[in-house]
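Task card 7
Instruction: Convert sequence to structure tokens.
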Amino acid sequence: MATKTLQTSTRHAVAVLGLALVLSGGCANQGKKRLAMLENTNRDLTERLNELRAQMNGMNQARSDAQRQLLAAQGEIDALNRQLAEIPETTPVAPGWTDTPSGAMIAIDSSVLFAPGKQTLRGSALRALDGIVSTLQGEYADKDIIVFGHTDNQPIKKSGWEDNWQLSTERSLAVIRYLQDKGINPSRLAASGCSEYRPRASNDSPSSRSQNRRVAIFVVDPELGLGHATP
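Output:
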């Protein structure tokens, strides 16, 4: 009886020990799996952290580059502003006039002022010139005045002039004399004939030649000293 009881107890003990070993092995496997999962997670997080650090470094570098570019651009803007500040203010040109580096100019078609081959002003020219006189005495009262006569390249035949130099100069003088008669101080006036040699269009057709037959009136700063005696 005692022996049987001992055998039974022994079997129970062996069973319990076996169960304990099984449970112990299961816990160990679960621990290994848990550890492996944590290691994988740690590795993934480390890689992600490194990626984020690289991105942050890149953004910091980009910000530094942008700041340098901004400072460079601001320096260029400041330099341009200094240059602009050194440029003297220009006076707006009068209506109908064209801005030039030293003043302004207006061109009048010779057909408005003169009959073909003539240097005497037409009656219809006086109204146009009177408007110019008003501008010369108003907006450009502080300017010198140079009148240029221009012709096309057609040779003089029947008008009695020696050549286009003479015709262009006589037309310039006719305008100068009219300006003086209207009260323009003659010390502001200068006359010049350019003949055919400063065309503004080709001379290969009647329409282009008509553009070249003109009188141009320039107003310039007296400081340029054009035509004035030098000390």
